[in-house]
């Protein structure tokens, strides 16, 4: 069952029923100010950091679901409704929501009034703008009342949810003309405030939640909306809100447009403390003046659309498979940009109060957006590397506002260091910017301990080289990519902490997946060394890679597939010898991606085993058989019910590793089959089962052992976005950056006979046409009509256009 449809021309997903299986959301914002908005107007806003600078509240696990947001109520002679249906849930005569790139427009019609809200965050300015359009589509005059509503968060979202004894006495507001100022805690420790204004004279307002909603009322029908009145309340402590009341008169066929702006501002006056509690309103006034008219707002929307067109123009394809084309051209790249902005910090599944930016996550996300915003990728790399330790290890996460490592999460995930090499390698291949390696970057944000970025990479590789276990395989530490595979953890009871705290716990468990990573990224590091003239270091690195490669062949091969690991007792994990968890997906993907076992014929056998044991109609599960009981020696992975998350769920993040691995042994049909099964455009028809948005990837789909097989969770913020874009754009379609130029090496399925692409690379436009020849034809690559050897088109400084024809 479908709840909407794609509009590829407008780059929108159009939802035509409000009660979707779950809230289907969009992200507004591209730099510092961000908002999450659902198809019914739910969501929240923040500036830079979803934990520390939250403007509006959101209640997770709320009943009714998704009933906190940025709402507009209409009281039409006692009929109370919302253009987006929520939270009143009054049946509408018509409804539509259009999620576009950086904007959302939802509209509803009731009793002859059409109301639409266009919401977006303009480029560069720290605010969210709503254009509210009201139209009388009857033959008679209409008089009704419009109410706006937001509920302010007391800035620190975690403290806001827990420290009631203090917070219920801190709320402060100010109202001037049609602008409501939220200045809670401004007198004490902050130099910022929020404001909420409208470009019209108001007939009333409220800033106190209990007055507007009612002490025992609800968002569904606030007391003041029901009374068709306003309390003109001034919040003092308790819960500050922002609500404007406007009386609207429309003649038949008349349309009015109002502009609402919710913004963040800082006081630029360094002498703020000499005038406590007095806010400098000039920053907010300038923004309100900038977005005062419909013409100004329409111009800002147009600029936003042009911004996204430019970003997406860096990689675009044309092919007969429209579903794949729309994902490659629009939605996959769009999601990659959202993961760049958010990492795993703020979604409808991540509260924005704990995780911050992930070291591993952000390095992987970079793979999907570096071709669109290389200069910001460069900044992100420096931020990530600055949280690294001197021994090459790293904080697993850091806060986006402070760039400081997250002490609550800590470190010890032994795959983290290698991801930095992956990210930097991808950046250099994309840009040719070798100077980044000369940048001085601190360790643990201590400027006295700064070294070149190249030294950071050296320490990353050295960390793995100096953390090998009894079988010559890398030590797993607290965990590797699979955070829940805690092989050095000995808890005494299920539910206790799964964290390892030090060598006394016997940290000798080894990871075959990290071994695959070391081989893959060790080779890339060696190439970087050789490009810098560090030939001896390159040889030493290649020798280390060879040793780990051989250790995998000797001790990491189980006969039909690659082992997952050895636990702290030296017992195999992911082996045919195990009763449960015999085979895992991760090492099959990463070992083959690293080239391990291809020449020996092991790679094909491993990937055949994946298809035999791990395939489902909805994607590849992470392991089989599922764990039915808790195992202390394996940790959190066995705490989930069978079929969910790391215990045999379909973890979409690692399905692209199998896609890439399949292209490395030349199996285009199988590679595309794996790609297609988790691709949102192909799951749209089963939205009632899948439940999450049919235009973006989810982290997890319930596996074949689950009661709800095929049901997805944790959409939007997942490494699935970047890795899937890499798998389809760089390996199936085969257009990927190399150190010396652009590589074009497709591995196509039969269903994609030919395609054309435009790829912008290092300042040049590559116009690529890929054709399939007859059986027996020799593969040929023509560049500007001249055949070249190999598949890497040599980069020529200053050349602006390449015309590439490939015959497969």
UniProtKB/TrEMBL annotation:
Q: Which Gene3D superfamilies match?
A: 1.50.10.10, Glycoside hydrolase, family 65, N-terminal domain (2.70.98.40), Maltose phosphorylase, domain 3 (2.60.420.10), mpn423 like domain (1.20.890.20)
Ranges for domain Glycosyl hydrolase 94 catalytic come to: 307-734
* Top-level division of the source organism's lineage: Bacteria
Which residue ranges traverse the bilayer?
A: none
Look up the record and give one Gene Ontology term from the biological process aspect.
carbohydrate metabolic process
Keywords assigned by UniProt, alphabetized: Glycosyltransferase, Transferase
> Which parts of the sequence belong to the Glycosyl hydrolase 94 supersandwich domain?
11-277
**MF annotations from Gene Ontology:** carbohydrate binding; glycosyltransferase activity
Query: Sorted alphabetically, which SMART domains does this protein's record hold?
Result: CBM_X
Matching PANTHER family, A to Z? CELLOBIONIC ACID PHOSPHORYLASE, CELLOBIONIC ACID PHOSPHORYLASE-RELATED
UniProt-recorded name of the protein: Glycosyl transferase
């Amino acid at each position: 069952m479908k709840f909407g449809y794609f509009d590829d021309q407008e780059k929108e997903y159009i939802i035509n029923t409000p009660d979707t299986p779950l809230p289907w959301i969009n992200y507004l914002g591209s730099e510092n100010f961000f908002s999450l908005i659902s198809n019914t107007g739910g969501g929240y806003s923040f500036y830079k950091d979803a934990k520390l600078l939250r403007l509006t509240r959101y209640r997770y696990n709320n009943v009714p679901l998704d009933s906190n947001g940025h709402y507009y109520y209409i009281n039409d002679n006692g009929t109370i409704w919302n253009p987006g249906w929520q939270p009143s849930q009054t049946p509408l005569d018509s409804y539509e929501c259009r999620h576009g790139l950086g904007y959302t427009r939802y509209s509803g019609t009731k009793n002859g009034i059409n109301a639409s809200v266009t919401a977006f965050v303009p480029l560069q300015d720290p605010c969210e703008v709503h254009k509210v359009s009201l139209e009388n589509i009857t033959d008679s005059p209409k008089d009704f009342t419009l109410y706006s509503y937001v509920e302010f968060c007391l800035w620190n979202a975690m403290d806001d949810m827990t420290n009631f004894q203090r917070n219920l006495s801190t709320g402060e507001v100010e109202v001037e003309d049609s602008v409501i100022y939220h200045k809670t805690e401004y007198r004490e420790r902050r130099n910022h405030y929020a404001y909420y204004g409208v470009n019209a004279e108001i007939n009333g307002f409220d800033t106190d939640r209990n007055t507007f909603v009612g002490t025992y009322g609800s968002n569904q029908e606030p007391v003041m909306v029901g009374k068709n009145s306003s309390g003109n309340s001034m919040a003092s402590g308790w819960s500050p809100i922002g609500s404007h009341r406007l009386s609207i008169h429309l003649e038949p066929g008349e349309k009015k447009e109002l502009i609402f702006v919710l913004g963040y501002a800082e006081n630029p006056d360094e002498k703020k403390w000499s005038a406590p509690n007095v806010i400098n309103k000039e920053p907010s006034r300038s923004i309100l003046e900038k977005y005062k008219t419909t013409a100004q707002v329409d111009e800002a929307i147009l600029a936003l659309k042009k911004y996204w067109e430019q970003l997406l123009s860096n990689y675009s394809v044309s092919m007969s498979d429209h579903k794949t084309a729309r994902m490659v051209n629009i939605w996959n790249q769009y999601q990659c940009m959202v993961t760049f902005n958010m990492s795993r910090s703020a979604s409808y599944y991540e509260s924005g109060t704990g995780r911050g930016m992930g070291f591993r996550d952000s390095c992987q996300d970079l793979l999907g957006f570096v071709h669109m915003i290389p200069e910001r990728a460069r900044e992100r790399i420096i931020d990530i590397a600055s949280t690294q330790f001197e021994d090459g290890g790293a904080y697993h996460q850091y806060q986006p506002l402070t760039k400081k490592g997250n002490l609550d999460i800590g470190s010890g995930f032994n795959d983290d260091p290698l991801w930095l090499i992956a990210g930097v390698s991808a950046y250099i291949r994309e840009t040719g910017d070798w100077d980044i390696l000369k940048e001085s970057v601190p360790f643990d944000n201590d400027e006295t301990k700064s070294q070149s970025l190249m030294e950071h990479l050296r320490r990353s590789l050295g960390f793995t080289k100096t953390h090998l276990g009894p079988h010559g395989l890398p030590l797993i530490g607290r965990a590797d990519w699979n955070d829940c595979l805690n092989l050095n953890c000995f808890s005494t009871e299920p539910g206790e902490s799964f964290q390892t705290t030090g060598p006394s716990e016997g940290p000798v468990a080894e990871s075959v997946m990290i071994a695959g990573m070391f081989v893959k990224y060790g080779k890339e590091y060696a190439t970087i060394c050789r490009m810098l003239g560090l030939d001896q270091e390159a040889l030493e690195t290649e020798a280390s890679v060879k040793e780990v490669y051989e250790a995998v062949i000797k001790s990491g091969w189980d006969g039909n597939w690659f082992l997952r690991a050895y636990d702290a007792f030296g017992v195999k994990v992911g082996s045919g010898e195990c009763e449960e968890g015999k085979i895992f997906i991760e090492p099959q993907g990463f070992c083959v991606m690293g080239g391990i076992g291809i020449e020996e014929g092991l790679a094909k056998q491993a990937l055949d085993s994946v298809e035999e044991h791990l395939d489902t109609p909805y994607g590849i599960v992470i392991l089989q058989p599922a764990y039915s009981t808790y195992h202390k020696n394996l940790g959190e992975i066995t705490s989930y019910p069978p079929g969910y998350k790391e215990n045999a769920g379909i973890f979409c993040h690692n399905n692209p590793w199998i896609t890439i691995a399949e292209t490395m042994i030349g199996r285009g049909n199988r590679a595309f089959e794996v790609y297609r099964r988790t691709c949102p455009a192909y799951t749209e028809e089963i939205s009632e089962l899948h439940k999450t948005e049919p235009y973006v990837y989810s982290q997890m789909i319930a596996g074949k052992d689950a009661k709800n097989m095929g049901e997805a969770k944790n959409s939007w913020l997942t490494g699935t976005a970047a890795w899937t874009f890499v798998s389809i754009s760089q390996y199936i379609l085969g257009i990927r950056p190399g150190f010396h130029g652009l590589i074009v090496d497709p591995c196509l399925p039969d269903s994609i006979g030919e395609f054309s692409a435009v790829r912008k690379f290092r300042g040049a436009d590559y116009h690529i046409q890929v054709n399939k020849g007859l059986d027996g034809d020799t593969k040929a690559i023509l560049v500007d009509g001249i055949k070249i050897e190999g598949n890497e088109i040599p980069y020529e400084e200053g050349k602006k256009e390449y015309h590439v024809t490939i015959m497969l």
